[in-house]
Design brief:
heterodimer, A: mainly alpha, globular, B: alpha/beta, four-stranded antiparallel sheet
Chain lengths: ~325, ~230
Amino acid sequence: MTPAAPQPQRWAKPGVVAVVLVVLASAPLFLAPFATSTVSRILVFGLLAVSLDLLVGISGLPSLGHAAYFGVGAYAAGWVSINVTSAIPVPLLVGAVAGALGAALTGWITVRAHGVFFLMLTLAIGELLHQLAHTWEPVTGGANGMAGIPPARVGDQPLVVSGYVHWYVLAAFAVGVAVVLVVSRSPFGLALRGIRDNEPRMRALGYPTRVYKYAVFVFAGSIAGMAGALLAAQQRLVTPADVGFATAALALLAVVIGGVGTLWGPVIGAALVILIRDAIGPGLDGHGTLVLGLVFIAVVYVLPRGFGGLVSRRHR
Amino acid sequence: MSPLLDVRRLRSGYAGSTVLDGVDLTLTAGTTLGLLGRNGVGKSTLVMTLMGLVPTTSGTVTLDGAPLPTRPHRIARAGVALVPQGRRIWPPLTVGEHLKLAARHARTGSWTRDAVLDLLPRLAERLRQPAGSLSGGEQQMLAIARALLTNPRLVLLDEPSDGLAPAIIEAIVEVIGRMRAEGVAVLLVEQDLHLALAVCDEIAVMDRGVVVHRTDTESFRSDPETAHRLLGVS
C-alpha cells in the first residue's frame, strides 16, 4: 500500500492561532519597515501557496500555472486602483473575481486532463498569460510592469506607512486562509479528498467529479487572485514575472517544503522561500535560488512530507 | 417478471482490445446471480463496464426498462452500486467520512446510516478510525456499507471474499441475504464456488468474453461435470 496522503491538519488550537496572529500583527511595532514589508510579502505569498495546496494537496491537482491567477488578480486590482478606486475592499474583491474568472475560463479545459497532461496544460496556460502580460502593454505596462498603483485606502486615508499596509495584508490573509480551511473541512472538501485518492470510485458513488474539480479550480483561482490583489497593494507594482513560471514554481516549492495537504505548512514554506529569496539571496550575489534548491533537496530527503508532516507525525 | 437488468450483445474492452465480446445477461430484482469463470474471461470487465468505468463499444444495457446512462455518476444515481475487487477504500479517510461520502448523492431508501451500521456493527465501533488501519475484512464491510448507503437497486460485487477469513465470508453471506430480502439484485463475481453456491439463486459462467452457461444453483450443484468442464473444478 502506498503511504497515506496526509489529511488536512486540524488547524492549530485557537490559542496558538491567536498568539501567532498577535505576533504577526505586532511585527510593525518592533521591526524596521523593510523587515515589516518582508513579513507582508511572506503573507501574500503564503496565501498564494495555501490556495495552491488546496489544489495540489487536497484535490490532487498539481498545477504549474497557478501564478497566472495570482497575476490576473494583481493586474486587475492594480488597474482598478489606478482607474477607479483603491478603497478597501474594492481592489481585493476585484482581484478575487478576476482570479476566479481567469480560472473559470481556463479550468474547464485543464480539469479534463490527468497527471502529466494536467501539469503541462497548466504550465502552458501560465506561460500564455505571462506572455500576454508582456505584450498587452497599454493595460499591463509590458515588461516594465504596471507602475504607479496608488496606496490602498481606508475611506479617505491612504495606507502609505508599511505598518498599516501590513495590517491590511494580515487581515485579508487571515480571512483568505480561514475561508480555505472552512472549504477544505466541508463536505465539498471531503469529496475533493476522495477524488484525489480514487476518482473512479467517487464517480461510482454518484459524484460528477469534473464539476467538483472545476469548482475547486475556480475557487483556488479566486484565492490566488485575492493574494495578487494584496501583492498590488503591498508592492504597488505588478510585473510579468509575478505571473510567470518562476512564481508558480516557487509557490509549488513552498507547498512541498511546508507539507502537501496540510494547508498551514505552505505558509511556513512561503516564509522560507521569501526569506531566502529576498532577505538572504541579495547577500549571496543573487544565489538565493541555489540555496532554495539545496533546501528543497534537504527537505525531500529529511522531511519527505514537509514541515507539516513533521507536526502531524507527532500528533498521530 | 421483467428483468431489472437486461444486457444485450454487450462489447467492451481496453485500448482497442476486445474483452467482452457480446455478453447477454438478465437479472431480476431481489435475486442473486453468481458470475463464475476462469481468470481473464471478462468478469471484472463486465462489472466495470456496467458501472461505466470501462467504455461500451456496442450493445445495450437497460435498468428497469430504461437505457442505463453512460457516465458512472449517472449510473450510480440510477441505482447501480459497485463493490470493487480489492475494496478500493480511501486509506486516509475515516470510516465515518466514508459513510458521509457515500450518503451525499444517495437515492432515498431504507439503507440509512443507522440501518447500515446495525447490519455491520464493527464499523460503528470504528467510525473515527482511518480506513487504512482496518483489517481486510473490515475494509470489505466498509466497501459494502459504502455501496448500500447509495440505496442501490443493483449491487455489483466483485470478488468480495478475496483473501478473507471464513468468519468474514459468513458475514458477507448474511449481508447478501439482507440485500435480497430488501429487493436488491446482486451480481456476484466470485472465484469461491462454495460462496457462490451458498448465496446465489442462479449461476452464470463466462468464457472468452461471453456468457456460455446459465442455470439455477441447484442444477449447477447437481451437475459437477459441467462445473469441471467450465471452471476446471470438481
